[in-house]
């Protein structure tokens, strides 16, 4: 079975565990709060947003509480089931719609009601090989001037390089930099992931979307696989989070976190 076919089942297997493994972890909370701080500045109360790769619905619920309405999509049927259950329990009456759809199938979404913004968090778009086709279809479904806040796994992660070099694992230290797809094991399934550079992402989204700003997410805050260590040193994660908030938009450093958050604006083209 190919990695592409196995992908929904891979994320299905994580659905009930995702929040305990990442959402509610020390590292997950620090990184997500950093993304939310940008989303709060960019999106406007009353906006109708499209979310790609919504997972268990944590971000959709946050944006709904901030006054947005959303169509939140994910490739995993079980993730969508978890997200819907959470919405019913935590925010009944919210203007939230969930749909099972892959990022590559965004062109199947209706055109009647354009979106005022697009949001995607924590590497959902790293599972897409052809970003340009996704960007083209997003442009057809968004209003001119609409913001797109997209969080990718970075091509260069300083934390990862240092962490694995100190453990004598240079292959893992530089795994993101090598060209072509990497095969990741998720939920016992093989999934193809790509680590495009910021430049190549901007090229894929041009001329429909223009980059406004970018931020490192997890610059000094470590990647999620360091969570067992981070739980024992939560005070240290707190201080690195404060450091991130000061330095995440600095040139050079902004491309070297665990993730990079890209803030685009839809052009008039």
Please, could you describe this protein's structure?
The structure is a single chain. It is built from eleven helices and nine strands. Mean pLDDT is 92; it is low at 1-6. α3 (26-42) packs parallel to α11 (234-247). It has a single domain, classed as Rossmann fold (3-Layer(aba) Sandwich), CATH 3.40.50. The strands form two sheets. Strands 3-2-1-4-5-9-8 form a seven-stranded mixed beta sheet, sandwiched between helices. A two-stranded antiparallel sheet has the order 6-7. The chain has 269 residues and is α/β, with parallel strands linked by helices. Helix content is 40%, strand content 20%.
Low-confidence stretches: 1-6
Percentage of helical residues? 25-40%
Question: Based on CA inertia axes, which overall geometry fits?
Answer: globular
CATH architecture term: 3-Layer(aba) Sandwich
- Classified in CATH, the superfamily is Vaccinia Virus protein VP39
Main sheet summary: 7 strands, mixed
Please give the alpha-carbon distance between the first and last residues.
40 Å
Range of strand content: 15-25%
CATH class annotation: Alpha Beta
Structural class: alpha/beta
Report the count of strand segments. 9
* Assembly level: single chain
Cα-based radius of gyration, to the nearest Å: 18 Å
CATH topology (fold) name: Rossmann fold
Order of helices and strands: HHHEHEHEEHEHHEEHEHHE
Query: Please, how many domains?
Result: 1
Helix count, per DSSP? 11
Task: Identify the notable features of this structure and list them briefly.
269 residues, alpha/beta, Rossmann fold, 7-stranded mixed β-sheet, two-stranded antiparallel sheet, disordered N terminus
